[in-house]
Write a structure and sequence with these properties.
Layout: E1 2-12, E2 19-25, E3 31-35, H1 38-48, H2 58-68, E4 71-82, E5 85-94, E6 97-103, H3 105-115, E7 119-122, H4 123-136, H5 142-149, H6 153-156
Parallel strand pairs: 4-7
Antiparallel strand pairs: 1-2, 1-7, 2-3, 4-5, 5-6
Helix pairs in contact: 1-3, 2-3
């Protein structure tokens, strides 16, 4: 079963200074933090702020190519957590035929935001991420999840490059 999520915001991991995309369940306070690269976070931050760069960025190009080929971006899904790495898929249709494109979650999310497509996470991934986070001793533990769930809009601030 897929759980619909929204981008709650971007923040920096206080330990590693790596960007974190925070996804929030639309129907509950559950959150899913996904660590991403600086360039991917910048692409998402630009879309959050509705800043249009003078030239298309990679995710704009991908959206334009998919649409230009006559496909419609239906949704993106974070499909799996394997070896502490999230995997995602872009679901599109072309001439009524489904297309599934393997993607990194950060790229899929950046594309979904540009295409106004919904973002989903497999329920199993949410459960796996809670279990994996609990035993690693890393900042990705349940304490971070509870802290993220309690953040207000003012707490998240703006992501700065």
């Amino acid at each position: 079963m897929e759980v619909e999520m929204r981008v709650r915001g971007l923040m920096l991991d206080p330990t590693t200074n790596m960007p974190i995309i925070v996804l929030k369940d639309v129907d509950s306070d559950a959150v899913l933090p996904i660590w991403v690269g600086v360039f991917e976070a910048n692409a998402i931050a630009l879309e959050i702020e509705k800043i249009s760069p003078p030239r298309p960025m990679t995710h704009d190009l991908l959206k334009n190519a998919i649409l230009g080929l006559g496909a419609i971006i239906e949704r993106v899904v974070v499909t799996e957590l394997r070896n502490d790495t999230f995997h995602a898929a872009i679901w599109a249709t072309r001439n009524g035929e489904p297309l599934v494109i393997d993607a990194r979650p950060s790229d899929a999310i950046a594309l979904a935001m540009r295409a106004d497509a919904p973002i989903y996470v497999e329920e199993e991934v949410l459960q796996s991420s809670r279990l994996a986070a609990g035993g690693t001793g890393r900042i990705t533990g349940e304490d971070l999840r509870r802290w993220l769930e309690g953040l207000s809009d003012e707490d998240t601030g703006r992501y700065r490059m």
